[in-house]
Amino acid sequence: MNNEKTPLSEQELLYDPMFAKNPNAILQDNPSKGIFGKVALKKAAFIIVLFFFILLSMYFSFRTVSKAVYTYSENGVFEDGTPAYMLSEYHGDSRKVLIVDYVRDDKDVPDETKPVREIGKYAVNCNEALNFIYISDSVEIIDPKAFYTCKNLKAFFVDENNPNYKSVDGVLYRCENGVPVEIMMFPAKNPEYRASLNLGLEIPDDPKTNGSYFLHYEELEKEKGTLQEDSSEKNKLQLETENNTSKYDIPDTVKVINELCFAECYSLKYITISNNITDIEPLAFFKCSNLQEINIPDSVINIGSDAFSSCTSVKDIFIPSSVKTIGHHAFYNCSGVNEVRMECSEEEAKEMELGQMWVPQQRKVIMLDIEIKYNETREAK
User: Fold this and answer.
1) Is 228 exposed, middle or buried (0-12, 13-18, 19+ CB in 10 A)?
2) Which is it for the CA torsion 25, 26, 27, 32, positive or negative?
3) What pLDDT digit, counting tens, does each position of 236-261 carry?
4) Which of 56, 150, 299, 344 is the most exposed place for a label (fewest CB within 10 A)?
5) Please, are residues 175 and 153 in contact by the beta-carbon 8 Å criterion?
6) Is the distance from CB of 282 to CB of 306 less than 8 angstroms?
7) Which of 311, 348, 345, 351 is nearest to 329 (CA)?
8) Rounded to a whole number, what is the largest CA-CA distance in the chain?
9) How confident is the model over 223-232, as pLDDT tens digits?
10) Is the pTM above the cut of 0.70?
11) What whole-number distance in Å separates Cα of residue 349 and Cα of residue 183?
12) What radius of gyration do the chain's Cα atoms show?
């Protein structure tokens, strides 16, 4: 039997899918390419490139791990000439409370000569430890996407002297002349927070002395109770949340539901959208999978892209004739819906600005096309 290795050219190897299974095949140098045809040189170059990318990966991993708790940037001056700053990044790890007032060091010591004016885009995103955010009276601007995916955020607290923002039951609003006109952010755990207040916990009015609240909150989570409907055992906090605080009413003065405002609020079941709302911004109710109803009032003009995407528990969608714009994928994956009812006529619908795939495509189970019905009334189903 011939056990000698069979030399193959580089070109032959390129087109030989069985090379990996051929132990007798070896790659020869290609003299016609000079030094660049050396197999050993190619192997060395490959190892060097691989080593470089490993070092690069380690560098960026180290930078991510070693990031400062706070990152600020200069942001002009206040009317009195005091330098202003923007909170651009926060990496608080396991900290449950964020205080936005002055530039702070990693030990949370504030520099009271450097007040914060703005909270930037994605500044506090994807933080799963935070429960409370305190905002001082110096903050004038909060980016709509500043707090997205803070999955355990319970409440905002805003200094009563802040003319631009206020907190109502832990929900953040933008104000004009002290009146809420835009709902900025509904914390994902706000229903649980309001349930805890109903069960006797006191609002932590000082960010430095909230230990008592957390202690009593943990005690509530351990106390057991029984849900009357199905006799399942749940803690008292869960019962109070499901029975009393899974519904939220937006104040009548509000005109805009902010981008990402209610996104991924899984405990929210019912929402009352006030009759003054004109704009429902993109992703406003994204993945509110337990939301039972979508009640779009006659005041709404614009529905943003993905505004109600993945609201899988919704059974009925009625769009009033006041609506002129519906963004792409506005009702995408509303899998519980088998028809979309529109108050306008089919001819009027052609005049609307409709984004791509704004209608739910199919029901997941029975795979029926979603039907659009025109000249519908709100009450009829």
Assistant:
1) exposed
2) negative
3) 788 888 777 788 999 999 999 999 99
4) 56
5) no
6) yes
7) 311
8) 95
9) 765 555 554 5
10) yes
11) 29
12) 29
